Amino acid sequence: MTRPAITIWRHGQAGTPEPLLDIAADGRVTGYTGHVDLGTGLRTAMAQIVAEELDIAPGQVSMVMGDTASTPDQGPTIASESIQIAAVPLRQAAAQARAVIAGLASARLNAGIDDLDLRDGMIGTDAARLPIADLLTGPPVSLQLDPDTAVKPASDYHLVGRHLPRVDLAGKATGAWTYVHDVAVPGMLHGHVIRPPYAGRDSGPFIGRSLIEVDEDAVSGMAGFVALVRKGDFLGVVAEREGQARAIAEALPVRWATPPDLPDLSDIPGTLRDLPSEKRMLADRGDVDGALERAATTLTRSYAWPWNLHGSIGPSCAVADWREGRVTIWSGTQNPHMLRADIARLMDLPETAVDIVRHEAAGCFGRNCADDVCGDAALLSRATGRPVRVQLTREQEHLWEPKGAAQLMDVTGGLDANGNFDVYDFETRYPSNRGPNLALLLTGAIDPAPQPCDMGDRTAIPPYRIPNLRAAVHDMAPIVRASWFRGVSAMPNTFAHECFIDELAAEAGEDPVAYRLRHVDDPRTADLIRRTAEDGGWQPGRAPRLTRQGQIATGQGFAHATYVHGAFPGVAAAQAAWMAEVTVNRDTGEVILDRITVAQDHGLAINPEGVRHQIHGNVVQSISRAMGEDTRFDRTGARDAEWGSYPIARFEDLPEIRAILMERPEEPPLGVGESASVPSAAAIANAIFDATGVRMRELPFTPERVKAALDGQPLPRGLPAPADTAPPRWRRLATGVGAALAGGLMASAVGLAIRAEIPRVPRPDNIWSAETVERGRQLFAAGACAVCHTAEGGVPLVGGRPMETPFGTVYSTNLTPDPDTGLGAWSYPAFARAMREGVSRDGSHLYPAFPYTAFAKMTDSDLQALYAYIQSLDPVQADTPPASMIAPVNLRPSMAAWNALYHDATPFTPDRAQSELWNRGAYLVEGVGHCAACHSPRNALGAERGGAAHLSGGMVDGWLAPALNGTGPAPLDWTEADFLAYLRDGVSPRHGAAGGPMAPVVAELAALPETDLRAMAHYLASLNDTGKDRSDAAAPLDALALDQPLEMATGPAARLFRASCGACHITGPVPSATAARVPLALSSAVHADRPDSVIRAVIDGLPAVGRPDPRAMPGFGSALTDDHIAALARFLRQTLAPDKPAWDGITEAIGRARQP
Amino acid sequence: MSKMHVTTTVNGDTVEFLADPRETLLDSLRDQLGLTGTKEGCGTGDCGACSVRLDGTLVCSCLVLGVEADGKRIDTIEGMSEDGALHPLQRKFIEHAALQCGFCTPGILIAAKALLEENSNPTEEEVRYWLAGNLCRCTGYDKIIRAVMDAAAELRQEAA
Question: Which CDD domains does this chain map to (chain B) (predicted)?
Answer without folding.
Answer: fer2
